[in-house]
Each structure stands twice: as structure tokens, then as C-alpha cells.
Amino acid sequence: MDFRLSEEQAALRESVRDFAREAVAPVIADHYERHTFPYEIVRQMGKMGLFGLPFPEEHGGMGGDYFALCLALEELARVDSSVAITLEAAVSLGAMPIYRFGTDEQRERWLPKLLSGEALAGFGLTEPGTGSDAGGTRTRAVLDGDEWVINGSKAFITNSGTDITALVTVTAVTGTNPDGSKELSTIIVPSGTPGFTVAPAYSKVGWNASDTHELTFDDCRVPAGNLLGARGRGFAQFLRILDEGRIAIAALAVGLAQGCVDESLRYAKERQAFGQPIGNYQAIQFKIADMELKAHTARLAYYDAAARMLAGEPFKRQAAIAKLHASTVAVDNAREATQIHGGYGFMNEYPVARFWRDAKILEIGEGTSEVQRMIIARDLGL
């Protein structure tokens, strides 16, 4: 198995790396401090084709694959995770369900703007009080004639309240299965639909330049044709979407971990202590060596999971391993990078302070570390 990048993949990586350094790095700290969404950066990513990377050209995509998206996410997250998660959620949680499960009409209506970055979409799965327990979904949708009537709420939904958010796909209980379990379906709710309310943005520990809201649905009516995929297939749909998304989150986590190495190397060469650069001291050298080790092995984990997915092989366990390991590594490296920077690591003007605040959510979002361990254990037959 050869993990060396092709010329095309390497060119994509370098292009996104340059963009992150030249367009994102100079402005993102201000967005982060003011908790503002970086519309201009999103517009530029759209022009680069990043939102269409893993989609076919016939739908307005770039004709690439999911691994290409992961390479882009890693390079963006080396500089900032708010921008990276905006892209990740827009593609894997926003556009991908429409592409995977939508009708031709739904694809024609929504994909062109989603894949160009002109519009964003959210994925309404998590609910207040349920967290990882998707089976605890309480949002309900009742078919009334030719309309679905939706009532309920969702929590922690990314890309759900920007000025360019076009829709949110919502999982809802639409009936009862023969075995007595809840029948879950997924329904497209366009932004601005009466009864669909977006709460004010959360005050978050990190990802402060990304968009996250609680959503409520109060007798929200949408056409029956807004059902995404077959009725009752909502549970299977979001399991597929989350399996893929975990590889993307792993790539993002690797980017953050590598960014911690980048910033620590730079600081260790510049910072003087006791008459010489702190990088001359073995204690600092070993810290940075261990950080590089962790970032490298986490990268191999998501490369492996992506390769299996693209080959059409089972990849659920490998995706969980990649997400679990990479998110742990991101937190570890952020902690060590902050320690290397000393007091300056506690100052928001230094990127590592942002990395430290952004790292923890990677062990929680799109399946907690405990959920990943559960997936791995079950796949091992336990």
C-alpha cells in the first residue's frame, strides 16, 4: 500500500496550503476574536472549487474524491479549524446527503449552489438532551396531505444560520417500525420556511469563527417531496454519512496536530532562554519529536481509512480508529504546543492558543471518543 501522493494530489495540497497561509492566516485571528463568520474566505474557497472536490463534474463538482477533500481539510486546519470545519460540514454533512440519497430533482435544485460554495447546508441530527443517542430522537414529522409537519429541536448544528445557508436536512420520527422501534426519516427544510427558527449563535469555547446554532421547528411545513431518500431510512443514512465524516474529522484533527508542530518549531528556533534558543534543549526537542510522531501516525490512520472507503471495502472500524486516534493526538499536541510557548501560549495572539481551544471538540463532535471505542469493539465482535 503506497501512501505517497500523486502529482495531482500533491499540487492540491500545496495550493490549499498556500491559500491557508496567505489568505486565512492574516485575518482569521480577528474573526475568531470577534466571533464573526469569514464570508470572504468561504467565497474564495468556493472559487477554488473546494466545496465541490469529492463530487462528479455532472453535478457541478470537481470530479475528485473524498481523499482530496481530506487533504484540503488537513492543510486548512494547520492554520485554523473554524475554516476547516466550515468546509467539512458543508461537504460531508451538508451536500453529501443530497448527493448520496437525493432524487434527481433535489440534486438539480440544491447541488449547484452547494458545490460552488454559493450556499451552505446543515445536517440536523443531534438534539438537546440526547447527544450521541440518535435513537432518542424526539423531533417528529407527520404527513398531512402533501406536506410534512415538523415539530422539535436540534442542537449544535454547524452552518445552519449563516446568510448563505440554504437548507438543513433534519432527522425526524415519522412512524413506528414493525419491531416497535422508531421509524426515522430525513427531510429537507429550506431556510426561511415558516415555523423553522434559528436561535442566536452559541457562545463556544472554540471554533469561534464557525457557525453553530440550536434549531426549533414549530408546525414547520415542507412539501412531501422534501423527503430525502426512502421513508424510514434516516438511521441508515446518517450512519453512512457519519462513517465518512469521521475520516474527514480525522484529517482536520491531523491538520491541527501538525499546525502545533509547525508553530512549536518556529517558536523553539526564535525563543531565547539562558543564552540560547530553547530548541537547543533536549526537553523541547523530545516534546516536538513526540508531537511529530503522533501527527504522522494519525495521518497514516486516516489515509488508510480513506483508501479502504474509496476501494469499496468495509471501513467503519478504520474510520473510528482514525477519528479516535487523530482527535486524541490533536488534544495532546495542542497541550504540548501551549506548554512550549509558555506564557505566550496563553495569549490569543498566538495560534497555539486557538489550537488549544479548538482541539477538545474533536473528541466530541461527530461521535465522541467513547462512541468510537464502542464502534471498534463491536466490529471486533464484542
Automatic annotation (TrEMBL):
InterPro entries: Acyl-CoA_DH_CS, Acyl-CoA_Oxase/DH_mid-dom, Acyl-CoA_Oxase/DH_mid-dom_sf, AcylCo_DH-like_C, AcylCo_DH/oxidase_C, AcylCoA_DH/ox_N, AcylCoA_DH/ox_N_sf, AcylCoA_DH/oxidase_NM_dom_sf
Span of domain Acyl-CoA dehydrogenase/oxidase C-terminal: 232-380
UniProt cross-references to Pfam families, sorted A to Z: Acyl-CoA_dh_1, Acyl-CoA_dh_M, Acyl-CoA_dh_N
Domain annotation Acyl-CoA dehydrogenase/oxidase N-terminal: ranges: 6-118
Domain Acyl-CoA oxidase/dehydrogenase middle per the UniProt entry, residue ranges: 123-220
Keywords in alphabetical order: FAD, Flavoprotein, Oxidoreductase
GO molecular function, one term: acyl-CoA dehydrogenase activity
Entries under PROSITE patterns matching the protein: ACYL_COA_DH_2 (PS00073)
Gene3D superfamilies given in the database record: Acyl-CoA dehydrogenase/oxidase, N-terminal domain (1.10.540.10), Butyryl-CoA Dehydrogenase, subunit A, domain 2 (2.40.110.10), Butyryl-CoA Dehydrogenase, subunit A, domain 3 (1.20.140.10)
Cofactor: FAD
Similarity field: Belongs to the acyl-CoA dehydrogenase family.
Protein name in the entry: Butyryl-CoA dehydrogenase
